[in-house]
Amino acid sequence: MKCKEFLTELTDYLDDTISVSMRVELEEHLHWCHDCKVVLNTTKKTIEIYRHNTLYELPEKLRSRLQEAILTKCKSQQKKQST
Amino acid sequence: METIQKKAEDITDELVLVQAAKKGDLEAFSELVKRYDRNVFRIAQHITHNEEDAQDVVQEAFLKAYTNLAQFQGNSKFYTWLVRIAVNEALMKLRRRRSDKTVSIDEDVETEEGSMPREVADWSPNPEQLYGTSELGDILKKTIQGLPPGFRTVFVLRDVEGLSTEETAEMLGLSIPAVKSRLLRARLQLRERLAKYFKSKRSGDGQP
Fold this sequence. Notes:
- The complex is a heterodimer of chains A (83) and B (208).
- Chain A is an all-alpha fold and 83 residues long.
- Helix content of chain A is 81%, strand content 0%.
- Chain A starts with a helix and ends with a helix.
- The longest helix of chain B is centred in the N-terminal third of the chain and has 23 residues, at 26-48.
- The interface between A and B is large, with 41 and 50 residues.
């Protein structure tokens, strides 16, 4: 297996959606290819970092304001539809 | 087993809320808003890069969902349907702010930055600890903002929000292979860009 083929399968490998035989082939490649091993580990880390560090939390104050605005608009929409 | 059961309960519960909201029960709709407003806001911020726009997207997406509730067939989850509306609203905002009006989720962008990794130095064992929380947040935001909209949207839905490939495809109106190909390239490009902040001092020429 070449590095390029390894990369093609990387996403399925990380998501665990590949066949057993493909997994064996990929792991064999990883055994001797240092670069692909680094790419695999750092890609895994990339995903973890983005998953663990929530960006753009909605502040509670703003949240209640938005909820209120949404419901007010829905209410007037309801009135419009019933008339 | 327990989680499958929990998930099934959530879906039934969601359907009950949607049915009630369809009949005009605003309390029920308000529950749906509370359940998903944070997610919609996050997704909208990732797409638009603009807090004001993201706030508008949250409002418009829920209002549109409410107005068109009768058209929601229940073939998919309410959340999937809602995010689809929100993504479209967010892309419209982005187009308005950009000089090129060609922002699209379904165009397959061939960026200069190919998919072949160039940076193969290993990272520090605990890269997140190299920076303070707010500095790390800035690095992560800046890095993901550099990706084409189609790539970062797929990455956010799949890897940040934890949705399945099938759900992401449905939300974005893309095929499954298209979602997979964008996800791979998004992951590799983010990795490549983060490397300059996180690579181990021993193997590289130090921090930027």
